[in-house]
Amino acid sequence: MRVVEYSSLVLTHRQNHSRSHLSGTSPDTDGPQHRDGTRKRNTPLSTQTLPGTSTTSERRPALVHGATGVSPRTERKLIALVGSSGGHLAHMCALHPWTDRHDRLWVTFDKPDSRSRLHGEEVVWAFHPTTRNLYNLVRNIWLAFAVIRKRRPDLIVSSGAGVAFAFFVVARLMRIPTVYVEVYDRVDSPTLTGRLCRPLSTRFFVQWQRQQSFYDGSEVIGPVL
After folding, report:
1. What SS3 string covers 43-74?
2. Distances from the Cα of 163 to the Cαs of 69, 117, 169, in angstroms?
3. In a domain, 63, yes or no
4. What is the CATH number of the domain that holds 157?
5. Which of 76, 74, 79 has the alpha carbon at shortest distance from 57?
6. Which of 111, 114, 93 is CA-nearest to residue 46?
7. Residue 29 domain flag
8. Which pTM was predicted?
């Protein structure tokens, strides 16, 4: 199993987004039983380098194994975090050790948990419900065009659900790099949003090794919650 181990987290916009070759091994991450604390976690997303990353002294990140010491200075970029409320939003909030280093724009549903979790953050309310709702899909696509054209985020990150697809479609058209983080609790079958967003994603992360069989080219990062 391959796990990404990079040393920096700086985002540079509109560089060549070709995938870096991965190396290194990790402990077994077969499914949610990994959460009982008896097994060592994989390298968390907070230590990953995302699409088009670089340090201030080099155009591309170095692949480092077991790196210690101080990471290179990073430049703040604008990250759009897109996802439904509830568990999907919880996944995005769990990335805070990394997202705190950059400016954030949230796109989610106007629900009590969203207002509580994102108090003081910049938020755009998306249209919902999105399940089997073509009308709101079209509305969210237009919303995505408006938000992305106005703010020009350097990266879009999502863990689903339906609202992610609308933003990933527009991001592909506007050449904005995207990262999808599959939810941890679907290990027996792929999610609908995951299947839709996989072809549109610059990078596609899963939390368990078993999930890799559903998504070609996906990368294991270990559980984020």
Report:
1. CCHHHCCCCCECECCECCCCECCCCCCCCCCC
2. 39, 18, 10
3. no
4. 3.40.50.2000
5. 74
6. 93
7. no
8. 0.67
